[in-house]
Amino acid sequence: MNKKMRVLYFWLIAIISMTNFFAQNKKPLSYKHVISAEQVIVYFQENRFAAWPANNGAWLIDGDEILVGFTEAPYVLKKNDHNIGNPKSSWLARSLDGGETWKAFNPENYVGDFGSKPELKTPEGPIDFNSPSFVMRIVGTAYDVASDPRGHFFYSYNDGISWKGPFSFGDLLNHPEIKKYGICSL
C-alpha cells in the first residue's frame, strides 16, 4: 500500500471514529482519577499468540461494557520478528464489568472469515451511524488476517454481537475531494 493510501485510510478511520464517538457521547465525559490500577488477563491459551488490539478496534459501550479486538494465532518463536504463526484470525473480547473480567470469542461473519480476497457486498440501504448500539470495523489493505488490497468494512447494530459485511467502500476513493487534494492516486 502506498503512502497516500495509508494516509487516506488513517483519516477515514479517524473521521468515522470521531463521528461514532460524538454520536454516542452527547454528554461530557467524566474521568475518574486512578490511584492504583490492576492488570488483568483478557485472553490466554498455552502456545497461542494474542495481541494487537490497536489494529483490531476497541469500543466503549454503554456503562461498563467494553469490546476489544485482537489477532489470535499459534505462537511461533521467531528471531527478529513477531512470534506469530498461521493461521491467524480476528477475535473479540467483551467485558461487562469495566474490564475486570473478560470473555474472548471468535465471532462469526467477521474479519478474515471470507478469505484473502472476499466477495464484497454493498449495503442494502443507508447505514444508521447514530444507532445507539452501532460499532464498525474497518479492514485495511495490509492487515494480514484479511489482506484484501481493496480494504473493506463490517458493522454491527448490537454492540458487536453479530456483524454485517464485508462491504466495499464503493466509489469513495473516487470522491472529488479525495481526487482534488491528491490523497489517493487510484
Describe this protein's structure.
With 186 residues, the protein is α+β, with helices and mostly antiparallel strands. The protein has one domain (3-21, 43-180). Helices cover 17% and strands 22% of the residues. The protein has three helices and eight strands. The protein has helices at residues 3-24, 53-56, 176-180, and strands at residues 48-51, 58-60, 66-74, 89-95, 103-105, 135-139, 152-156, 164-167. Strands 1, 2, 3, 4 and 5 form a five-stranded antiparallel sheet that branches. Strands 6-7-8 form a three-stranded antiparallel sheet, with helices on one face. A hairpin with a 7-residue loop joins strand 7 (152-156) and strand 8. The chain is globular. The protein starts with a helix and ends in a 6-residue tail after the last helix.
List the helices and strands and how they pair.
Layout: H1 3-24, E1 48-51, H2 53-56, E2 58-60, E3 66-74, E4 89-95, E5 103-105, E6 135-139, E7 152-156, E8 164-167, H3 176-180
Antiparallel strand pairs: 1-3, 2-3, 3-4, 4-5, 6-7, 7-8
Strand content: 15-25%
Low-pLDDT residue spans: none
The largest sheet, given as strand count, sense and whether it forms a barrel, is: 5 strands, antiparallel
Number of domains: 1
Q: What's the N-to-C terminus distance?
A: 11 Å
Structural class: alpha+beta
| Helix percent band | 10-25%
Q: What radius of gyration results from the CA coordinates?
A: 18 Å
Tally of DSSP β-strands: 8
Number of helical regions: 3
Average pLDDT level = 82
Envelope shape: globular
The helix-strand sequence is: HEHEEEEEEEH
